[in-house]
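Schema walkthrough. Field components (list of strings):
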Amino acid sequence: MITVKSLQRSGLGPVDFTVGDGECLAITGPSGAGKSLLLRAIVDLDPNTGEVTTAQMTRSKTPAPEWRKHVAMLPAETGWWLDKVGDHFVNPSGIAEHLPDIGLSPDSMNWEVSRLSSGERHRLGLLRCLEKLPGVLLLDEPTAALDTETTQLVEALLHGLMEEGITILLVTHDPDQPARLGCKTMRIENGQVVT
Amino acid sequence: MNDYVSLSYLDLVFASSFLVLNGALSLWLKLGLERKLAIASARMVVQLLLVGLLLKSLFAVASPLLTALVAIAMILFAGREVWARQDRKLSGLWGFSLGTGAMMFSGVTITVIALTTQIQPDPWWTPRFALPLFGMVLGNSMTGISLSLDTLNTAANRERTAIEAQLLLGRPKWEAMRPFTRRALRTGFMPIINSMAATGIVSLPGMMTGQILSGVDPTEAVKYQLLVMFLIGGSTGLGVLMAVLGSVHRLTDERDRLRLDRLTAP
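Field assembly_structure (string):
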């Protein structure tokens, strides 16, 4: 569960909403409307005001690193700071068996980051987030760079996560994706929620 | 000092003709360096002539107040130089005061300790010893600090996604910044490490050369040079460390965010 209360930052808000355990909210709207800004504000990556709570934690009472492990965000552009893919994971050998589930080779932990396609980066970034066992997952266009088949694999993974009780917030430009995932939708235009 | 050979101004004009040749080459090869070369060398001539006159009168007066004022002016100029050499710098007062403060703390501390415990002129602030020593320490700290801050700010800006990816995985700010902090520190230390390693084999340091040319026994000149190199190394290291850690502190905040909004655009 996640509750966002009068969340405000430059170019956005105030925004209020609640999403329950195992539920999903799709955030839609034109490019530059403030969808990514909203996700960044929730994980406290940019200065903002307002309060965010989950069933277990209150943001203002939690150190930022702990908060970001609990409320994990996958940005539209994933960052890598070492040469090898596996070095970015806590337990690369444990993750290897899950790689085929989302259409990646079990060998990809040994790859060079510079060799990855943008779709591969994104899926590996998602697995990297999941390693921290978050309660809430914020995804910025998780399937934007993927073909139909791989999109289905990722959506199946997301379905599985929701069944485990994980709450998902999802920014998407795919008009059919919210329905496929069973998400409610929230539309943002010019930094304001329009219903 | 009886074998000291005094230079005439005509000698200097002859020596400068090679620099003029460089300017002509730049024009011919369209390197676009001739303007910079001309301005830099003109600045050097004016600054050095003035400083020669200033030092001469300062040595004659031997006032602690005037010596301190000159030292402060040197710090402010060095601070401006550090500020100007960064492509992206911290906005507001921080941009100037961080580098200047680090340089002042490390430079003053080390120079004062050296004067009071090692060289021990009487009185300890005697401008003939204090100002040249402070100048050498300050000049080298300045190079180290400006290089390291420029490296850090450029890296923070360019590697934003890599830094934020680590923050998003719940890493604290110092850990997320560590690869870039380390790179900045290395860059700041590099000139002094290189010059220590090459000194005596590839190059004879300017100060030692100057002393030898003016008739000082080479082994005595070497001792002075070693003292100065140790002081320079110590103050550069201290200053670079302070400036870089201060800058990392300012580029992040208490909620472990990367605050690139505190950097100015180039």
